[in-house]
Amino acid sequence: MSNNFILYGSPASLYTGKVRAYLNYKNIPFQEKISSLKVYKKIIIPNTGVGMIPVVVTPQGEYWQDSSLIIDHLETLFEEKSVYPSSPKQNLVALLFELYGDEWLRLPAMHYRWNFPADNLEFIKQEFGSSVAPGMPKFVQRWLGKKVVDKFSGLVVPLGITSKSIAAIETWYEELLLQLNAHFAEHDFLLGSCPSIGDYGLMGPLYAHLYRDPYPGKLMRTLAPNVVAWVERMNQAQNIQGEFLADDNIPSTLEPILSRLFGECWPALECASQAIAQWADGKDPGTTVPRRLGMQSFTIGDITEQQMSISFSQWMMQRPLDFYQSLPELQKQVVDRYLEPLGGKRAMGFQPAKRVELENYKLVLGPNE
Ligand SMILES: N[C@@H](CCC(=O)N[C@@H](CS)C(=O)NCC(=O)O)C(=O)O
């Protein structure tokens, strides 16, 4: 039996980019295999029951899906160079950035991939075509690629990326690029000279869509060369032996980013959580939660728009909340003093009315409190 892990995914996939960079950093022996239609049919769906990537298969033949779970499982097997800082503020901030990358940077990622067809569409069709049907004739790839294009581009408006919100999304994303550019002028990674789980969260959208796709790639290279350098560092971190900043320090360059996280992303997460609570009324623990639960409002800058309520977001939100709740009182007070001016103290007091869990690759209602 091979000692290698297998990563099933594709170059254009957001969450595959997160896991691939992590596997490289940790020097975990792995082989990447394209998640072609055949692989979905013969391997991914029969073994996980869901049509999602990335999937990691262990040398023992276990299947793992969900980028955060994959990383957490691997952290227990490969303890060196942990991506979880051991000090409270840094670990919380790392988990918040992971959440931001996974759940909120989807907006610019999807906008810049799908709303610039003159620059992107041919590239992306080809990418999808060659992932879905590698080795097949070009006309088959184009036909199958178009089906995947239709599926994902069809999500743009339901995600809330509309003529009303696009200007605000672009203004916010350009501001974020400049803020990260200033940050990476001083630091190699978010929290020092080695990557944390927060870097991996950001890496998904900032690599697969916003660095690789032609239009946003140009934008990133123009506005934020230090972010480009960080993306490249993230993908080639095999030999990095850095450390997190001393004394639980958080660079001040991250503060404006965290303020917008708490001001804009967090209220949307709370809405998603309320949608679960409403839906869950009278249902038993263990019941599968639908992936989408109606529509909800969200605000970016001075624009309020509607988007579908994504139930999985609450699972991501529980990660920083659980960590915060697990802190001893004295550490909580230190963290609170840091979070208060950023709007994060109130946010950390939020308690989902119904918890969710991942069971057999699906989101289910957690046990009653
Ligand atoms: N939370 C999951 C999200 C995975 C995910 O949404 N993957 C995308 C590709 S990047 C996918 O497979 N989407 C298919 C679908 O949503 O049906 C993770 O972190 O692994």
Name the features.
369 residues; binds glutathione; four-stranded mixed sheet; Glutathione S-transferase Yfyf (Class Pi), Chain A, domain 2; alpha+beta
Cα end-to-end separation: 44 Å
Mean pLDDT: 97
Helix content range of the residues, please? 55-70%
- List the domain count as a whole number: 4
Topology pattern, helix = H, strand = E: EHEHEEHHHHHHHHHHEEHHHEE
Low-confidence stretches: none
Write down how many β-strands occur, each being a DSSP E stretch of 2 or more residues.
8
Per the CATH scheme, the topology name of the largest domain is: Glutathione S-transferase Yfyf (Class Pi), Chain A, domain 2
Tally of DSSP helical segments: 15
Spatial strand sequence of the major β-sheet:
2-1-3-4
Strand content: 5-15%
Top CATH class of the largest domain = Mainly Alpha
Spell out which ligands are present.
Answer: glutathione
Please identify the structural class as seen in this structure: alpha+beta
CATH architectural designation of the largest domain: Up-down Bundle
User: Rg, please?
Assistant: 20 Å
Oligomerization state of this entry?
single chain
Describe the model.
- The protein has helices at 14-25, 37-48, 67-77, 88-104, 106-114, 117-132, 138-153, 166-186, 197-209, 214-223, 225-235, 255-280, 312-326, 329-339, 344-348; strands at residues 5-9, 30-34, 55-57, 63-65, 292-300, 303-310, 356-359, 362-365.
- It has 369 residues and is of the alpha+beta class.
- The protein has four domains: 5-77, Glutaredoxin, CATH 3.40.30.10; 88-113 and 161-254, Glutathione S-transferase Yfyf (Class Pi), Chain A, domain 2, CATH 1.20.1050.10; 116-153, no CATH class; 255-365, no CATH class.
- The longest helix is centred in the last third of the chain and has 26 residues, at 255-280.
- The chain starts with a strand and ends with a strand.
- 44% of the residues are buried.
- Glutathione binds at residues 13-15, 51-54, 66-68, 312.
